[in-house]
Amino acid sequence: MSCPINKDALDKLRQFIDVCKSNSSILHLPDLKFFKDYIESLGGTVPDLHKMSSGPKVEPKEEPEETVEKPLESDPESELEFDMTGCVEPDKLDDNQKMGDSSKEVPDEDADKADEKRIEAMSQLAEGNIEKAIELFTEAIELNPHSALIFAKRGQAYLKLTKPNACIRDCTRALEINCDSAAAYKFRGRAYRLLGEWELAAKDLRQACNIDFDEQTDEWLKEVTPNAKKIEEHLIKKERKKKDKEEREKLDRIRKAREAHSRAAQEKQEDIPMNSEEAPTGAGMPGMGDFYKLLQDPEIMTAFQDPEVAQAFQDISVNPGNFVKYQSNPKIMGLITKLSSKFSGSGMNFPGFPGGAGAGAGAGAGFMGFPGGFPGAEMQGNPPPPSKPSDEDNLD
Fold this sequence. Notes:
Elements: H1 7-22, H2 33-41, H3 76-79, H4 108-126, H5 130-143, H6 148-160, H7 164-177, H8 182-194, H9 198-211, H10 215-270, H11 288-295, H12 298-304, H13 307-318, H14 330-345
Helix pairs in contact: 4-5, 5-6, 6-7, 6-8, 7-8, 8-9, 9-10
Family: Belongs to the FAM10 family.
GO molecular function, one term: protein dimerization activity
GO cellular component, one term: catalytic complex
């Protein structure tokens, strides 16, 4: 006996079976419950939805650990204790501390006079006439504002008057002129020590010893080293803690990103559409969404609850050739005709569907929304009788 199914309908039926094989989760759709129940009534088993793996395995959600932020380290001076013996109150800068005209071109005559003033000032400084020495150093600076030595020596004089800020100003200017002035580093380092700037003091005094070692500079350096070392070690520790904190924050950002990715993957898997409107269209199965909409019709769903109907359709789906057994069954053929009518009248545009409510059981009526009609609608070797031409088909 030849197969009572037209080729197009048979292809569509194969496509539906392929979809079920590739994604059996669609059998858990509420609209296909009758089909699932019937498979199970025959002794078949539909895989449990929760045991299927249609996507990557996602670990269970874990509550993110709370990150306790530790307070930032405060300034070293607020935590470290120093021996402030010998420190003084900062002095205010004196407007009479003239710095000379740095743009002046110094003739040889002025340079010579500046040297004479410097020598005289150093004599006054040695005799203890500090104010007079500062006055002479200032005159020398105005004659030659490009001498680092003169600025360094006036800085030394200000240091003797316990004016550390004035000393720092002069020595900084000296270092701008000559970056290798050991005297400028020495006296500025001592001035920083008087202000309690231990780290800066140690830095300048070390540099002075490196350029031109002398015992007084070395003694001053040893005096500030304990406090300076405390600060340096504390800053190293603070920097290390800062880097550790940044690394923890980086790892925390990575962890949160991974958790977000994991949650998104899990939510995507949990959001597998389980209603007919969102049911996926199988690969190579155009119109599956419309097929599910068609099956939502209460009248059709009720018809499929009839065991006789369900068994017949299951029998035909297993072997399309079995369709011939039900051609004389008005209940089965009536449902096929109704499916064909609803499918055609719904406006669904499935390729190969003949359409028309009056197509009848033997005219390719659609089964379960398959394009091209239900298999067996046109029996091979027994074609349907030709339809009577309408008035519009009359030929002249």
